[in-house]
Amino acid sequence: MSAARDYPPPPDVIRGRVAWVFGDDFDIDLVIGVENIKSYDAEFLRSKVMRAYDPGFADRVRPGDVIVGGRNFGYGHPHYPPMVALRDLGIAAVLAGSFSPGFWRGETYNGVPLVTVPGIAAAVATGDPVAVDWRAATVSLGDGRVLRGTPPSDRVVRVIEAGGSLKLLLAEHART
Amino acid sequence: MAGTIAEKILARAAGRDTVRAGESLPVRPDYMIAYDFPGYTDVMFRQMHDDFGIGELAEPERYVVFIDHMLTKGNAKEQEVHQVTRDWCEFYGIELHEARGIGHQVMAELGYALPGNFLIHFDGHISGAGAFGALGWGVRRDLLEAWVSGQIFLDVPATTRFELTGDFAPGVDSRDLVHQIIADHGADGCAHQVMEYGGPGARAMSIDRRQGLCGMAMFTGAVSAVFEPDEAALAYARRVAKTDFTPQLPDAGAGYAAVHSYDLAAVRPRVVLPGSARSANTRDAAELAGTPVTKAFIGSCASGRIEDIRAAALVLDGRQVAPGVELNVVPTSDAVHRQAEDEGLFDVLRAAGAKIARSSCDFCFGYQKPLQDGENCISTGVLNISGRMGSTAANIYLGSAFTVAASAVAGSISTAGEVGRS
Fold it and tell me: What pTM value is reported for the model?
């Protein structure tokens, strides 16, 4: 729970490319490997992130890129370092058909825009350009198609705008 | 407006007449629970004090902390971790329950999990409170929101209703049922929903079995699970309650996302392959017969209750744990431990060669006697992801206490067969 990073809130529209497309029931721990899920060390995480899928991932990802998943993304017993590793590279959002509740709650707290878009995994491929309006849950693709998902609640919008729940709570409740 | 149990509990906790699935609103939990663990409670307490400037709590009685992890090495690090928790709880006047067993069980014994109550925890297995008609929701880091504000913003979940009939066959229990439900409806079959159990099969099920069933709700994607509180749940609650409580039953005409029926008599022993509890990993135990095991574990917040220990004693009575197999039995609480001793169950288990350990969470997360490379363990624990109980190169199979005990005797995955009802 400790030692997460401080990331700025996302822009209104996140513009980047699809950095990877995962399948259904994807276990986020696999992004760095289950033997590495306790580390928050930036250099170590960079050396492990996505190695099992694409050894060149860390070098080709640019800030604003997103990852995409199928149904029930984040299923399992999700730990926080895998998303830290991805965000350190500049991954700005996760788009998925649906999210596993534990992952959804934990990473929303951390300020990651999680955009629920049914069917997204079948509609895009690695490298596709995307423009994501995370409040409206719309994803505009390079060929003009627009995919529409389920917008987040007002409270979740405020959490993401604040750069995570801790910052919002501090603004609301800190007595110091 | 007709409501499900979850909608009615959340409406009461939100101070509203009714709430409807899909609404987003702040809710006041009756209890905001945590177990001490480095990186969790120590950080939360420090944030509350240093970052939020909270010097005292308006309602300390709504905060509950358990010490149930990291109890078995007796080293300086454990003492350091627990002392931090003791100091903060004393500072804030928070009730701390130390080394009385696994918090998700002890919360019931101490009267927190009362019918109609709304409980939150950072750990999702708080859903076991549903056995008593309480709604327990694992909110991860959002527990901090509740700790600093007394409330938490939630999206009111939809509910899937499970109508249960019949009774389990000998050698089968609710652990087999939950894995059957996952197999039938998928690892996201109840995603973001509450599972609501009712019907004659639910009423016939023992409280222990209900706790085991509700405690595993997250593996269907559910945020919680809840039984209709019946006379058995109310009798338990009256015995332990230190506060008033308001049991909630579903209204006629409540709206459900889906309704599924299960005849408990038709449920067969299930075993889950290593990796995760997803549906493709769930097998008829007979299919895996003969898979060798070196470790067997009965315990965790989803098992290790008196019914589970009785099940193990039925299987192990007059038999021996196979050579080369270690069977560890960890009662879910000290109270369960005493009852198992009083009933003579541990005599049976010890005579069979089982090892009995003090109640804690430590086996289930690989802290106590971690599995070694290449070992196969059959377990009633909550998780079988790689590395959960030790080495990432060990394999964890999940099954009921009946199946774990039978496998320990056989030295390989085996069902209990016709061992009689526990």
Answer: 0.96
